[in-house]
Design a protein that fits this description.
The chain has helices spanning about 15-20, 60-65, 75-80, 85-90, 105-110, 120-130, 150-155, 155-160, 170-180, 195-200, 210-220, 230-240, 250-260, 265-280, and strands spanning about 5-10, 30, 35-40, 40-50, 50-55, 135-140, 140-145. By secondary structure, the protein is α+β, with helices and mostly antiparallel strands.
């Protein structure tokens, strides 16, 4: 990619590679000195040099919003509790930001993520994009947008199972059809308060508490949302409740809400990425 054909964004306190590898999004491809992917239906190339981002011409505003460059990251990190586990995660994840993802793409991706490791979620996302998404030209490259609810809704369940979705195919298809029919409007749901938004998301096929909180955090920018998967449950139990045998899911949720506060979603993402990258493979949980 020719840097002369790219717009420049000042991006202090941001690590592009770390953010894209943190388990929020699963389709960006390393290419040249940067990454190629899509934001919605728009093809994007982005690379970083120190505190500057070089992005596809005319995409600066879109990328600034997507990568949440307006989040006061230093203040967010300073608000975290001073316990050793949290401070280690902050040091390891410096520059990681919570991405603002398109509602449908994020919802659909996390419906397909249940009991899957990050590498498998990425493979499913890429397969769906290549088979059913719209191709987008990016200089000499072709990238693929995530298939729309309309495109998914017109498929057969077997089409999705062929993309390694397994039992998740039924849930993804049912949710896409609800959205495509107009029975559910996930964009209008952005106006709902947290508890109602979570309840509405959990009413969708294939969406439980963990997926709902991921979607709230990564698509609806509800920075208090604290998804608890097997990684985070292990971190909470080992780092904050060592030796305590019985901790219910409700107790863990209540602790996280009080301990990590209004930016708990950032805390969760830092703890998650730090654990995923530093835990020996033989001790890693099976699913993300």
């Amino acid at each position: 990619m020719n840097a002369g054909k790219l717009d420049i964004i000042v991006a202090p306190d941001f690590d592009l590679a770390l953010t894209l590898d943190s388990g929020q999004t699963f389709h960006w491809e390393k290419t040249d000195a940067g990454f190629a992917g899509t934001i919605g239906a728009r093809a994007i190339y982005v690379k970083q040099r120190d505190d500057q981002l070089f992005v596809s011409k005319g995409r600066a505003e879109l990328c600034s919003k997507y990568f949440a460059l307006d989040h006061p990251l230093a203040d967010i990190c300073a608000s975290f509790p001073p316990d050793p586990a949290m401070q280690s995660a902050i040091a390891f994840c410096r520059g990681l930001r919570i991405i603002r993802q398109p509602h449908w793409e994020c919802l659909a991706t996390f419906i397909t993520s249940s009991m899957k490791q990050v590498a498998h979620i990425r493979q499913i996302s890429q397969t769906l994009r290549h088979r059913f998404g719209e191709p987008c030209s990016l200089c000499e490259l072709t990238v693929y947008a995530y298939p729309t609810p309309h495109r998914i809704a017109e498929l057969d369940e077997r089409d999705l199972q062929a993309c390694a979705l397994g039992y998740r195919a039924k849930s993804l298809l049912a949710t896409a059809r609800l959205i495509n029919s107009g029975e559910v409007d996930i964009d209008q749901m952005a106006a709902l308060p947290d508890d109602e938004l979570r309840a509405r998301l959990c009413a969708l096929p294939g969406v439980g508490a963990k997926v709902a909180n991921c979607v709230m955090l990564f698509a609806y920018e509800r920075l208090r949302a604290f998804p608890i998967d097997v990684w985070i449950e292990r971190v909470l139990r080992q780092q904050y409740f060592p030796g305590r045998r019985r901790m219910t899911a409700r107790q863990l949720r209540d602790f996280a809400a009080k301990h990590f506060g209004e930016h708990g979603g950032y805390a969760q993402q830092y703890l998650f990425h730090h654990a995923r990258k530093t835990t020996p493979r033989r001790l890693s949980p099976r699913a993300s």
